[in-house]
Amino acid sequence: MQSIDITYLNGPDIAALGITDQEILAAVEKVLDAQGRGKTVVEPRVHLVPESSDKGHFNVLRGYIEPLGVAGVKVVSDFVDNYKQGLPSEMAILNLFDPETGKPLAIVDATSITDMRTGAMTALGAKHLARKNSKVLGHIGARGTSYWNVRLLDSLFDFDEIRVHSRRPESRNAFGERLARDLGKTIKVVDDWESCVRGADIVVEASRLPEPAPLLKTEWIKPGALVMPYGTMSAVELSLTDIMSKVVVDDWSQCRKGLPFGALRAHVDSDRVTQENLHAELGQIVAGLKPGRENDEENILFWHRGLSITDIALGQAMLDKARGMGLGQTLNFARY
């Protein structure tokens, strides 16, 4: 008789790992390289909307990483008003599987993984697409992923000025205070979008809008800037892509026509962004198959929708570290 056991990593286990910024970035960059070389499978995400997209929905992400020998499925909820109940807007569970037999390997609290891997994607996008001397960051949004955006970006660029804005004053003020404490530098909390965005070298738009609204104006974008919008509902003008030298995405299959949501949804549906005029997927750039930024004058837009393989890679890295530290619980799945 064979026993199949699975490892369960809960939230406290993940916190106890003390995973470093460098470990997060390394895990995500490694899987991006594998994606660029065709060594992964990324299934387009699917959505479950229980009542209305205004209230919230679930995302289901699926993928396989050949170099790591692991497959996975993540289910993440996205409910914008959860703050009213003292809950994070996004909560997630990651399931890892043996791709040779289908045997379940682990169940991982992926709430922090979602935040970390999103921040890593933002930071790695900037590593390859922003000007090397970028010193001013403008960040719209204060949700969970926002913290890791700013933290991991600053670990690479050591900004002279970090500006943050979000719709609710209490949210943006608390966000600024947390960043100031953890990064050990002054954070400029501003009251409006323009003050946050205008003249910034790197612009991140991670707003939480109930419906599309062009709040980020194209005219505010500094020549040579990198712009990274990834809100579920678009906050950018249609003209934004008109000023871009290059448009890069994380995975075209999740950006193409016929899919809901996303910062550039209207741009794709109106053929402003197509597979033909797309510069590259980030994985192709990381793998050295396509160029990233080629000069300081380029305006570049990077749209990332969220890659299942980054969740899986970071989850696997956490699982490996947890085993070495004796963290996690062993659960019996079945006996055959």
UniProtKB/TrEMBL annotation:
It comes from the Bacteria. InterPro entries: NAD(P)-bd_dom_sf, ODC_Mu_crystall, ODC_N. One of its GO terms (cellular component) is cytoplasm. Gene3D superfamilies: NAD(P)-binding Rossmann-like Domain, ornithine cyclodeaminase, domain 1. Pfam families: OCD_Mu_crystall. PANTHER family: KETIMINE REDUCTASE MU-CRYSTALLIN. This is Ornithine cyclodeaminase family protein.
